[in-house]
């Protein structure tokens, strides 16, 4: 399998980790959802992200998930989330995943970082720990990490650490950040791949600003695939038409904390996983929420039919 | 003018404060936007909220804004945001606003509160400071305040402080919180009015869960008014049809920090205020963002026409 | 009265604001404690700081306190804390205080600032708002403000905003920050006065690293005065002997939140203020805590006698 | 080895983890410092705490450290810190450590907890995950964890989860919290052991309020041992005399972040570990800081000699 690089584009779906009702990993469903994502048109997968419930795994479970998904993906790229409280655990998982054939590793900043210098220093430590050859995805997700990465420090990180090949962009608001990076590149800064997150809620605008695609999840990953293709093809109006049809559900799934239960509800409904269960302390949808989601899905299906 | 109470319903628009390009309050535009909101069907207004740029005012400006809007509103209710770093300033503005004819005051929790006991204690202090006769709106907006108010402490506050008549609901996710309150009321808890915020992004679901309406802002306040009416009339499908037409812009306006610039851009475009300027340190839209908004508006107008 | 500048040195005591048991400002005690501080050897005062309960004042109270203390201080310098949620209120108080004869104003960063760029931008806004002629003290107190100011952004602020004349240093740990500033000055950076806070708990080490004195409070302000003089005179061992005698109480007073009640208890015991009351929502010492403080004072008195 | 219970008292030293200059665990030094702590009079040890650099270990390193120290400690109790981002990793280390003969496990709340209900719920999940037979130490350290545990929620946790046998108390201020717990016990609440942290900076007062001893670290652990014994023996004045002699260094070591480098500097100076190195991203003392520490030690030695 190849490695991600600064020109990687398309849609990398953030994969869920399926569990059974007792909280054990459901390996059959893991295979099935891996296939499901690729059948929906995914260019790659990212496993063990926040929405993959990564912090709830033991290290040995994380390794086994990596092994299984990378094997199943065949020659298609799989990025492995390796964020950990310390560099030793981060290194251990990264080295193992790359040995298994991962396309790169994703690192979010720990919540203890408070200044530009600390953020820059942390990614310096990560790159020194991993060596120059492992492609790193920087996950920029302040709503979840509490770490705000300014345009300035991001430029310094890009400049100083060439093995950081990709930005998983989920700052919010974040459109201007994309524009600033592309402007800096026009002025000579090293290119970086930008794949966008936040459930695809701004995907059309993000691509118009210069993003290369999406790295995020949604119960209907084909939405991201189609919008990325339409925007790449210059079909902005059609991209927005399609986006608008999915938006009520995107909005509902974007609720922090609750969103993963929504996503797993949809995936289970669609047969991609056997159970919508989250591992504790996560919990599923209330009946009222499930009914709201199902209502939105019925409207979405009708609207998609209207669009043809 | 009457006071808000536990049965208040409908749409209270969170009013912007218009400035000229130098950052001075534009009093003519303040009158105009006040009229604009009522012409759009608002049942009341809330001034000096976060999106009214309240923390940027001097106390004397806050008093003058209150006087002007309350007078302009005539016999329609105006709630005044009085959140302040200390109780003395909060009291001073509250007393003056009520003397001018305000319908109630709105209080968000200061960011220093960290435990249930502290949150409960703070609202106890507020109520003791204001006396039993001033109706208080509790603003529950964790994304902005960093204070998370659990169902349990909210129930204790409702139980202990009868002058808290209304919840400005903008927890996110927050639908289950509404359900819990209404369930508690069914079991005997004192009723409280619930008007929802967050730009109306979940208004239809919120009303289905038992909310009494909206207290929030949006460049097209008639959206809130129509959805509240349709939901009250039991026209759920039509409410969602209309909501979906506005949703792409609601989403765009919901970007933290940036949202107010979007809202003022729209209001200025519509002639409700003379200038989209924010008072420093706020800033306006980039050309790229303004173009994105204008594109969304053109699509919105087309979609609304299709809906008839 | 003169203005503070980049060479200001000595001890500026952070003044308490005395209240009566009902929470009203005790103007007689305010005069008395002003005199008390100067009799203890203070070179200046800083009023309306956090430990002066500034956020609990109305703007008119803040103005009246400023007027009274500045008048009482005669030709000795008084710095006025002007931190506020917005620039308009900050400007209003600053202008009035300078007109009354203040020696400068002190500004802490609002808790909403998250990146180096935002921190730098905020002080740029403050300086633009106040104009180039008002000397500004930058209060660097992350434990209270939650804003961490790195060495790098502090250097940029010093470089870009010449009217920032002084650092109220209370980062913790903070000794290396002083060393870095003095090293930068040796390499050509503009000089800035550094007065240290945190109740004097590291005053001897801070002055050895290059600080110019203290700007903080303590029930025995003569401690700061004597240590500053001894360190200036090169009497390090004697400074530490004296410091160690006061340290048990310094430690006890350093407890966040509780510390001000300790300080007012001591000041009331010493007759500098009539009542130890804090304005609500602050509260006084429990009987157990008061007994602990009194025990420490009796030991301190004995130890000071031993030292001669 | 026996288990800790609600009557455990004395001093459990928070053990450092020694590294060589390359960041590898120094197993010989781990044995040596284990012996050193017991020779200083420790009643037990706590390993893999924050100051044991626990988050920097891989899971296999954590297991090997546990095995080594528990074996070395013989029949003396060793508590193992098992805080982890998720319950699965927490369970894995807990079960292994208890199998090796640990006396209990210590769990700090994750920084994501924001309400009383969430805090209570988290410890409920922990206890459910570990089963009823593993004694749990609740680490209450808001300065580091950002989670504030109110008296009220602590009482609910004590009441609902009997396997939580001990509070590692390091709230600050925290004296009143001890008093409240002991008062609640007098009124019938289940007893809990309280061992205090924060480097021993309030140990005498804490024991006077009802604490059972200390669970913390310091370069001179014999200080904690002696003060705990003197306070237990009712020798309050002598306890304070001794405490005051150590206080200048306690204060210096209490600097967040820097404190561990100070502690390792002292332990290396005393021969308890070979190198003062911290594992990355930690770093050692500057020359200036090392000189300050050495100066304080020389004064401390003189003062202890004076006390006899």
TrEMBL record, chains A, B, C, D:
Keywords: Lyase. GO terms for molecular function: 4-hydroxy-tetrahydrodipicolinate synthase activity. InterPro entries: Aldolase_TIM, DapA-like. Pyruvate binds at residue 215. GO terms for cellular component: cytosol. Coiled coil: none annotated. It comes from the Bacteria. It holds the Pfam family DHDPS. Belongs to the DapA family. This is 4-hydroxy-tetrahydrodipicolinate synthase.
């Amino acid at each position: 399998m190849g490695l991600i690089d600064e020109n990687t584009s398309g849609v990398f779906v953030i994969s869920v980790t399926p569990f059974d009702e007792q909280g054990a990993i459901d390996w059959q469903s893991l295979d099935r959802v891996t296939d499901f994502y690729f059948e929906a048109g995914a260019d790659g997968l990212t496993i063990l992200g926040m929405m993959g419930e990564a912090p709830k795994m033991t290290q040995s479970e994380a390794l086994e998930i990596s092994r299984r998904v990378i094997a199943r993906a065949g020659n298609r790229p799989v990025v492995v989330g390796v964020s950990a409280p310390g560099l030793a655990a981060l290194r251990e998982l990264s080295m193992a995943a790359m040995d298994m054939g991962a396309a790169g590793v994703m690192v979010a900043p720990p919540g203890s970082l408070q200044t530009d210098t600390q953020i820059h220093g942390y990614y310096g430590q990560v790159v020194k720990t991993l060596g120059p050859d492992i492609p790193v995805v920087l996950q920029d997700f302040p709503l979840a990490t509490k770490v705000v990465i300014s345009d300035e420090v991001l430029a310094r990180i890009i400049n100083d650490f060439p093995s950081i090949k990709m930005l998983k962009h989920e700052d919010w608001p974040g459109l201007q950040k994309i524009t600033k990076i592309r402007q800096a590149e026009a002025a000579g800064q090293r290119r970086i791949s930008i794949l966008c997150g936040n459930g695809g809620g701004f995907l059309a605008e993000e691509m118009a600003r210069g993003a290369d695609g999406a790295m995020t999840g949604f119960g209907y990953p084909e939405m991201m695939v189609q919008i990325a293709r339409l925007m790449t093809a210059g079909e902005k109006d059609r991209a927005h038409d399609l986006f608008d049809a999915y938006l009520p559900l995107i909005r509902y799934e974007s609720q922090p904390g609750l969103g993963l239960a929504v996503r797993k509800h949809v995936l289970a409904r669609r047969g991609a996983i056997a159970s919508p269960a989250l591992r504790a302390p996560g919990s599923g949808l209330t009946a009222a929420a499930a009914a709201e989601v199902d209502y939105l899905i019925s409207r979405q299906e009708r609207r998609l039919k209207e669009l043809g």
